[in-house]
Amino acid sequence: MAGRPADGFAALEAEIVACRRCPRLVEWREQVARDKVARFRAETYWGRPVPGFGDPAARILIVGLAPAAHGGNRTGRVFTGDRSGDVLFRVLFDQGLASSPDSHGRDDGLVLAGVRVAAVVRCAPPANRPTIDERDRCIPYLERELDLLPDVRVIVALGAYAWDGALRVLAGLGTSIPRPRPRFGHGAEARVGGYVLVGAYHPSQQNTFTGRLTPDMLAAVLGRARQIAGR
Cα 100 to the chain's mean position, in Å? Predict the structure, then answer.
């Protein structure tokens, strides 16, 4: 790793924010930022790719699918300004890993301790479904981000897409993936090289409103991640 870690993060974040590799995602994220929704009509949307956020000395990396159209694509920070983030950051706060239970925008003063949050795909995708090519163009950013986090011991994958993405990132960094390939499940664990991959259902409205995922269920997974990471 060249230079200081802070320099590495700054360079990576600048490259992510300027990325225009995927024409479909560029068109969609910018259209959403122009058209907005009524409840955020007065706000200026970010409308660009969303970098990771959190502690550069993190021992836990939390990975999601992609920014929400009116969440991270609006606020410019992953899991910020949407219902998924409301659940995630409340649980992180209760676990002593976040300075506040609320996450409204990039300048709200929220600080994470021992944790970094990122996504497999950095642009909000139509219908929340990136294509395979879009995923593969974006994966190198997460590879570089993990490489900048030498203290990470646990990767928490929020959903099957993030689980698969994390395995692809680890393979891209030269880590041998176990056979048979570890399968996603809520509470699933797999040791992959020097990391432990832990699965959790994504805190989407679809999961939280139906009771498939409760805050207590997410807290149990993050508590286990803390235990493994020695936090």
Answer: 18
Q: Supply the pTM of this predicted model.
A: 0.95
User: Angle, nearest 10°, between helix axes 132-147 and 5-17?
Assistant: 160
Question: Which CATH number is 153's domain given?
Answer: 3.40.470.10
DSSP string computed for 6-25: HHHHHHHHHHHHT----HHH
| Residue whose tokens read 């499940």 | 185
> How many residues in total does the chain contain?
231
Q: Quickly list H helices, 2-82.
A: 5-17, 23-35, 72-75
To 5 degrees, how large is the angle CA 231–CA 59–CA 4? 135
Q: Is 149 helix (H, G, I), strand (E, B) or coil?
A: coil
222 Cβ contact partners less than 8 Å away, ≥ 6 residues apart:
60, 91, 92, 95, 97, 156, 200
Chain segment 139-152, per-residue pLDDT in tens: 999 999 999 999 99
Q: Is 94 left (phi over 0), alpha (psi -120 to 50) or beta?
A: alpha
User: What domain range includes position 90?
Assistant: 5-229
